Fold:
Amino acid sequence: EAGVTQFPSHSVIEKGQTVTLRCDPISGHDNLYWYRRVMGKEIKFLLHFVKESKQDESGMPNNRFLAERTGGTYSTLKVQPAELEDSGVYFCASSQRVWGNEQFFGPGTRLTVL
Amino acid sequence: AQSVTQLGSHVSVSEGALVLLRCNYSSSVPPYLFWYVQYPNQGLQLLLKYTTGATLVKGINGFEAEFKKSETSFHLTKPSAHMSDAAEYFCAVSPDSSASKIIFGSGTRLSIRP
Structure:
């Protein structure tokens, strides 16, 4: 069974540009999460989808970030326009079961904003 | 509000020595506790988790952790370190059994000396 995949693995863009990150969860997982780790700090929650609906987006830093999950399958996270402080590693995770909350993580996308 | 504190951003032990990575949490409700590991160039992998029941939890690769409610701790141990254990380890907490966000500590990088 394939795990959570993320694309691209690395992205280097200039300040002011737009970047779109993609996450493909494990097949059949209704829950999809985005997290971010900035500059060696703790990994912070961004948002949580249940199928195509946003269940919790309390961690989204500002309105430059837009997450979508059309059809309840893969998800995209768009940053527009990107700022220097957006640099970091963006992780996606998915889970199936409600009980136990075991989330399976992807390898992450390393975003560098110059 | 829940939080996680990992003592020591970097721990170095000799091969064959005891590994002890410290984690303390704060939670107003009985927490679900996790340890994740990130090997170089890989995603986060669940090492072990505590939900309910036995407070000593065994995980993969010989790791275990003990939930101590009185000390609000969930330290990770391994009796004998192996070179392959070199990675970054994250302690995390989730507020309940429902599918919800995970709150991570800042991580501890474990180095193994030959």
Notes: The interface with chain A takes residues 4, 32, 36, 41-46, 49, 51, 90, 94, 96-107 of chain B (CB under 8 Å). The mean pLDDT of chain B is 91. The longest strand of chain B covers residues 19-26. Residues 77 and 88 of chain B are 14 Å apart (CA to CA).
